[in-house]
């Protein structure tokens, strides 16, 4: 009986943690397939999720986001908050934005988790018009 209860509790915790996105993720460029950076996603007290660049794996042409249009303009990419205001909605995280420091453009964002991978979709207008990157968990 103890084994059954232990198995049930372990399965419950595994299921609950499966849909979480908190942690460190290696970003992969969807065009080149190269690892670009490490982004750490955290949940703030307001219940929303934010992600900031904690390590650059490829040295960018410019270390600052010169093309950003908001409070990130001319700020260093390292330490930059690139994901903002994501909210958990079932097994998906929506309602937030993601900024591409290379171009300075900000997009609406949806994130879903599949095992040790995040599918990060940035889009303008409708989710159908956009692109998806797959990020990998950093252990």
TrEMBL record:
InterPro entries: DUF2147 (IPR019223). It holds the Pfam family DUF2147. The keyword Oxidoreductase does not apply. Residues 1-19 form the signal peptide. Keywords: Signal. The keyword Signal applies. Transmembrane segments: none annotated. Residues 23-136 form the DUF2147 domain. It comes from the Bacteria. This is DUF2147 domain-containing protein. It comes from Kaistella carnis.
